[in-house]
């Protein structure tokens, strides 16, 4: 019995060491790689006027984007599932289109239901197989079919030619997502749409923006950015035609670690 307890103690000690080593590894590899130059967006026009459909609108990032668009005065239609929680969107005065992003017919029907100037795709997650690839491809194809040229696609650092920019731990954690995001990026580029691809890195928690998020054309860029700051950049991209055809990384240079993004007390 004593030998068995001794064995269990040794195993427990080994597990603690492994966890500690993993924590150190994560801390060492989750360092930002900041760009040498910034893609500076033009100031938002004082007058709004865009009619935008947002996919993934009930997600944390999608909700922030919808909120910023509405604060700017743009008209927004949120594409949602019948079962989606709309409680965060209802007070914002948006329209709703109900469907499933994995159902091409319902995506196209949503585009046809309004006279849209642009679409924003923030689809992401592991809730369904192939969601990040097929869902975003369905948005691109429906935009082409209905003549909505301006589309913004939220991808991620680690997709496409930014693969080596993502830390190893991120590439492992996102091993199922990155190939899907890469395929979706390639589809947007080949679509003939006036696309912009935005690649954020880590998205720390919190809803208070820092106001310091930037964009860069450097595919080696890696860092962290809070969702409200990313949303502000997305709206800026929508109103800056110089971003058409570009793939831009999004980062907050002042955030050195993902846990630094918490809201102030």
Number of helices: 7
CATH topology: Rossmann fold
Structural class call reads: alpha/beta
* Distance between the ends: 51 Å
Rounded mean pLDDT is 89
| Unreliable residue runs | none
> Which sheet architecture does the biggest sheet show?
8 strands, mixed
In the sheet with the most strands, the strands line up as: 3-2-1-4-5-6-8-7
**CATH class bucket:** Alpha Beta
Q: In total, how many domains does the architecture comprise?
A: 1
Order of H and E elements: HEHEEHEHEHHEEHE
User: Share of helix among residues?
Assistant: 25-40%
Q: How many whole angstroms does the radius of gyration measure?
A: 20 Å
Can you describe what's shown?
- The chain is built from seven helices and eight strands.
- By secondary structure, the chain is of the alpha/beta class.
- It has a single domain (36-257), classed as 3-Layer(aba) Sandwich (Rossmann fold).
- An eight-stranded mixed β-sheet has the order 3-2-1-4-5-6-8-7, with helices on both faces.
- The chain is globular and about 75 Å long.
- The mean pLDDT is 89.
Fold topology:
Layout (H helix, E strand, L loop, with lengths): L1 H28 L21 E5 L4 H13 L2 E6 L14 E4 L5 H9 L5 E4 L9 H16 L3 E5 L13 H6 L3 H14 L3 E7 L13 E3 L10 H12 L8 E5 L14
Parallel strand pairs: 1-2, 1-4, 2-3, 4-5, 5-6, 6-8
Antiparallel strand pairs: 7-8
């Amino acid at each position: 019995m004593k030998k068995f307890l001794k064995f269990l103690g040794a195993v427990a000690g080994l597990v603690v060491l492994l966890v500690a080593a993993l924590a150190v590894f994560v801390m060492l590899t989750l360092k930002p790689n900041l760009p040498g130059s910034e893609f500076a967006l033009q100031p938002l026009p004082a007058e709004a006027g865009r009619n935008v459909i947002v996919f993934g609108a009930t997600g944390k990032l999608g909700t922030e984007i919808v909120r910023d668009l509405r604060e700017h005065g743009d008209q927004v239609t949120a594409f949602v599932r019948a079962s989606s929680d709309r409680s965060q969107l209802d007070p914002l005065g948006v329209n709703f289109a109900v469907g499933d992003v994995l159902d091409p017919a319902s995506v196209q029907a949503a585009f046809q239901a309004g006279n849209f100037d642009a679409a924003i795709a923030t689809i992401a997650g592991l809730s369904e197989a192939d969601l990040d690839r097929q869902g975003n491809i369905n948005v691109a194809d429906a935009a082409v079919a209905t003549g909505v040229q301006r589309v913004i696609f939220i991808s991620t650092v680690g997709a496409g030619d930014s693969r080596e920019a993502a830390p190893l731990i991120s590439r492992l954690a996102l091993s199922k997502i990155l190939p899907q995001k890469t395929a979706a990026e390639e589809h947007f580029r080949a679509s003939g749409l006036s696309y912009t691809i935005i690649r954020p890195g880590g998205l720390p928690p919190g809803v208070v923006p820092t106001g310091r998020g930037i964009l860069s054309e450097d595919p080696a860029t890696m860092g962290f950015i809070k969702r409200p700051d990313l949303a502000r950049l997305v709206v800026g991209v929508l109103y800056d035609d110089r971003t058409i055809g570009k793939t831009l990384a999004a980062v907050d240079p002042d955030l050195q670690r993902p846990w630094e993004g918490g809201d102030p007390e």
